Amino acid sequence: NVLGHVPDLNDFVAGIKVILKPGGIVTMEFPHLQNLIEENQFDTIYHEHFSYFSFLTAQRVFARHGVQLFDVEEIPTHGGSLRVYGRHIEQASEPEERVSELVARERRLGFEDLETYRAFSSRVRETKRRLLDFLVPTKRAGKTVVGYGAPAKGNTLLNYCGIRTDFLDYTVDRSPHKQGLLLPGTRIPVYHPDKLPWNLRDEIVGQMGHIREWGGRFVVPIPEVEVFS
Predict the structure, then answer these.
(1) pLDDT tens-digit map of 170-224
(2) In contact, 183 and 154? CB cutoff 8 Å
């Protein structure tokens, strides 16, 4: 899972061409743009990722540097990823059927059309508005709002939505390395879970089910803002 972390993509892929021996195969994984857009996973966009790929884009980048992506697998890692297989273009042959199937699907989904990305941008903005629609009246009513977990992608969500301690009193995390610190940008404090009177919704609800006893509710912001008891 290196490709999205590379600042100079063309140099990196050109280097793969150089070091790949004749007859060799390179395999790489990266989060799939389809899942990011369909599941509104904009919170996975943060500083250590330079690029987010559809298969169409990856195919073009590798072909530009003499590598044919001849096979692809869809895997569940990181909310939905692609595992691609490449070889020297001089040794290219007919790609696997799932390559052509994925290319056709991505074209149907509009990954080559600017309007697809504009629609995604609009959906992200609507998520921000709906989250604030919940937070503003909740805080006006004198309620306390806290977060559970302090992952990197949480910082994308909080900073984009402008959520600081005026909306989120604090968050808790099981990692001792995060406790006693502040979230970057928002400066929201991180405490041990014992402070309360994980990424999986069912796990969090199961662990924190006791909050129902004092009228607590859960808020899940991604892919759509949902409030439940």
Answers:
(1) 999 989 999 999 999 999 999 988 776 534 345 555 655 555 565 666 676 767 7
(2) yes
Indicate the residue type of 167.
F
Angle at CA of residue 97, ends 59 and 79, nearest 5°: 60
Phi (first) and psi of residue 47, to 5 degrees: -55, -35
For residues 107 and 169, state if they share a domain.
no
The pLDDT of residue 53 is 96
Same structural domain for residues 93 and 157? no
- Ramachandran assignment for 228, one of left (phi > 0), alpha (psi -120 to 50 degrees), beta (any other): beta
Domain span at 48: 3-112
Backbone angles phi, psi at 162, to 5 degrees: 70, 30
Q: Are residues 87 and 7 in the same domain?
A: yes
